[in-house]
Amino acid sequence: MEDHNNETAPAFAGALPPKVTGIGGIFFVSDNPQATREWYANHLGLETNDWGASFTSRSADNPDEVTSLQWSPFPKGSDYFAPSAKEFMINYRVQNIEGLVSQLAASGVTILDSITSYDYGKFVHILDADGNKLELWEPA
């Protein structure tokens, strides 16, 4: 196991340290995503839409900050999880996505795509040590 202490971490002048700050989403394969969303709505009270359900909360360290977690079933056969063979993907909420991707690439982590920006944030996909596809999201 490698020792990753703060003394060897590069400085990011004026920027937040690149790191995960929470879970941004849980995505999984379903034989019938519509029926799955309906089941969760009817039996567990989730307020669902075509993308799943969103859970909002406040940050314990910064109560003015509202965060969210997206829960989404994907259709069986979706290539969204590729190249991972797993039927799930976790989205991690991050800060300083550019700095984090730079650190990960320097450490030899597989970066699957370029950082993509949308109105609701920036995204990039990586593989963990077990070959699981992970989504990194920096909210806008």
Characterization of the model:
The chain is built from two helices and eight strands. By secondary structure, the protein is an alpha+beta fold. The longest helix is centred in the first third of the chain and has 12 residues, at 33-44. It starts with 18 loop residues before the first strand and ends with a strand.
Q: Kindly state the percentage of residues in helix.
A: 10-25%
Q: Helical segment tally?
A: 2
Our estimate of the beta-strand percent is 35-45%
SS-based structural class?
Answer: alpha+beta
- Radius of gyration, taken over Cα atoms and rounded to an integer in Å: 17 Å
The largest sheet is: 8 strands, mixed
Query: Terminal Cα separation, in Å?
Result: 34 Å
Strand order of the largest sheet: 2-3-4-1-5-8-7-6
Total DSSP E strands: 8
Point out poorly predicted stretches. Answer: 1-9
Shape: flat
The H-and-E topology, N to C, reads as EHEEEEHEEE
Give the integer mean of the pLDDT values.
Answer: 90
